[in-house]
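pasting for ref
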Amino acid sequence: MIVEFSDVDDLVFAMDSAELIDNHKSGNISNGYIKKLKNKRIYKFFLYFSDGLLSMTFKNLQLIKPLE
């Protein structure tokens, strides 16, 4: 499945290229979640890899059907 984020702010990607290669499979994702910020229509996305982090603030999210 593809997840599309829009109105993205504060993108953080903390991982070097060797870690990115090591984490190219979904089995290397340790945790991930979406949190709504209090009293705002803004959400925070966190994706933790075994050796890195991807996070961003966004307003809209769309789930797109899997590629065939």
